[in-house]
Amino acid sequence: MSSVLGQGSGAPGGAGKLLLLPSGSAPPAGSEEEKIYMLITELLDPETRETALLELSKKREMYEDLALVLWGGFGIMSSLLLEIVNVYPALSPPSLTAHASNRVCNALALLQCVASHSETRSLFLNAHIPLFLYPFLNTTSKTRPFEYLRLTSLGVIGALVKQNENSDVINFLLSTEIIPLCLRIMETGSELSKTVAIFIVQKILLDDLGLQYICQTYERFYAVGAVLANMVQALVESQAVRLLKHVVRCYLRMSDNPRAREALRACLPEALKDNTFAGLLKGDMVTRRCLSTLLHNLNERPTQE
C-alpha cells in the first residue's frame, strides 16, 4: 500500500509502518502499535480524548494505514466530529481560546489523515465531512486561535485536492461553494493561509470542470479575477514569492479558456506585464516560464527579458 497518508501530511511516501492486523489478532504487548490502539480507544472517552488527540496527532505520520483504523474503528469518526461541533458556539461571537483551538486542530489533523488516504478519501467525501469545516473557514477573526483553526481546516481541504485523480473532489467542492470561502481567505488571511487557499483554487482551476465552472459566468470570473488582482497589488509590497507562483499559475490556467483569455487581455494587472517581479523570479525558471506563456497567450510580451 502506498503511503498516501504520508503524501498528505509531509512524510516521505512509503516510509510509514502498518497498523492493521489479521482478523482476531492483537498487537504485541508493550509495542508502539499497542500504544496507538490504546490511544485510539481513548478517543471514545471524553475524559481521555484530549490527551489521545494530542498524542495521535504527533504520531499520525508513523503509520500509513492510520486512516483505515480511524475510519473503521467503531465511534472514532463520531468522536472526532464531536470535537468539531463542540467549538461551534465559540465562533460567533468570536471567543475561541488557544487551548480550544489547539484541541480541535488535533482532531482536524486526524481528519486530514482520512482525507489524504486513497481508500478513505471517497468515503470521507460521501459522508460530507468537509462541510463540518466550512463554519471554521467562514470565520473572520484575526486572532491566532482563529487563524490556526482556518489554516488547519484549509489543510484538510488541501489534502483532498492534492491528489491528481480528484474530479470527484472538485465536483463536491464546487457544489458546496468552497470558492467564495477560499477567496475571502486569499484577501484577508495570513500569508500561510492565503497560500493554502490559493493552492486549493489553483487545483480547482486545473480540473476542466473547475475551469469551466469559474469561467461560466462573468460574476464568477470577476470574483476570482478581482481577488487575484488585489493579491498582485499586495505582492508588489510583500514580495511573497510562494504566493506569486500560485497567482501566476491561476492566471495561466484561466487563459486556457477563450472567454477568460479575452477578458484577461483587458484586466491582467500591469505588474505582471512590466517586469515588476523580474527580480523576485530571477531564480525561478518555472514560474518565469509560466508568466511568459501567460503573456504569450494574451498576445502580450514582456518589455525586456
Automatic annotation (TrEMBL):
SUPFAM superfamilies (UniProt xref): ARM repeat
GO aspect biological process, one term: mRNA catabolic process
Gene Ontology CC annotation, any one: CCR4-NOT complex
InterPro entries in UniProt: ARM-like, ARM-type_fold, CNOT9
Q: Which family does it belong to?
A: Belongs to the CNOT9 family.
Q: What is this protein called?
A: Cell differentiation protein rcd1
Its organism's taxonomic lineage begins at: Eukaryota, Fungi, Dikarya, Basidiomycota, Agaricomycotina
